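ZP: hey, is the adenosine-5'-diphosphate complex queued? I don't see it on the tracker
AM: it wasn't, my bad. submitting now with these inputs:
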Amino acid sequence: MKKVNNIAVLTSGGDAPGMNAAIRAVVRTGIYHQLNVYGVMYGYRGMLTGDIFPMENQTVANIIQRGGTILKTARCKEFYEYEGRKKAYENLKKFGIDGIVVIGGDGSFKGAQKFSTEFDIPCIGLPGTIDKDIAGSDFTIGFDTAVNTAVEAIDKIRDTADAHDRLFIIEVMGRDAGYIALHSGIATGAENILMPERKTNIEDIIDDLQANERRQKLVNLIVVAEGDEFGGANEVAKAVKERLPHLDTRVCILGHIQRGGSPTCLDRLVASRMGYAAVMALLDGEHHNNMIGIVNNQIEYTPLDHAVKATQKIDPEWFKIVKILAS
Ligand code: ADP
């Protein structure tokens, strides 16, 4: 296997808390192993424009606790086309880069997969996404922080809902995945959780609300994943108001606060372990074009194309828990 000398790290797609911790781990592990480490600004866009700079241990000082990403992130249309990826390759070659660590979500991995099959620069993916919508890892960098932010916000909403005897319909992020909704909903004792992995039946929701009303339970929280097939929180609220106009129903869309903030201990640990493992994978040469995951507390490698294709299944037991604990 060819020896790796110069590696690059970039963050791409949606940002996630903990990306900085992962960048730091990649830079410091690379330098420890006598590699030159380059940062690419703005994800694939920076590869195309040549926005690439050498990083030192000091460049990543004091960032492990910071949300966002010091390398910035972006979406890059040109990278979908072969010509764009070729231009990116030529820029990387100018710096002698012979290995890349891409920290991003499934879209970023699709790009990395294409790039690494077309050109002779291996890529390692680190799952950096608050949505946890990637197969091959129990954790993704940013999920734990996002879910804790959602929990903190929903707890506050419950206080005001309780004071006024209100029904709150709360929309959380997650794109096409319902993990933020499921985890934050269970952790805040939500009365109902709507998510794309399960069919939403508005009649069941109305029945539950009416049953709660009969036993004088007027405080209800329904957590809705943004990707739920019924629409978002506004659509659910509209349907509920049509059927139960006497209920005091409010909507709260948590939005971008879920992407920001200082990463939790778990996200920092996951990011640090994965960043270290990414550089080791580039050095050992056996796991090129794989995503680093953590499964049962062990580092696992999943080919990039598999990580984006496979979807995680949610054990139906989780839905039972929601129902029983909200009774
Ligand atoms: P995320 O990585 O968070 O899922 P996106 O889906 O926006 O975010 O993907 C980030 C970037 O990855 C895109 O802007 C594009 O440059 C690249 N990308 C995504 N999908 C593909 C694809 N099918 N082919 C090539 N590049 C892609």
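AM: back. Residues 144-259 form a domain with the Rossmann fold fold (CATH 3.40.50.460).
ZP: great, adding it to the tracker
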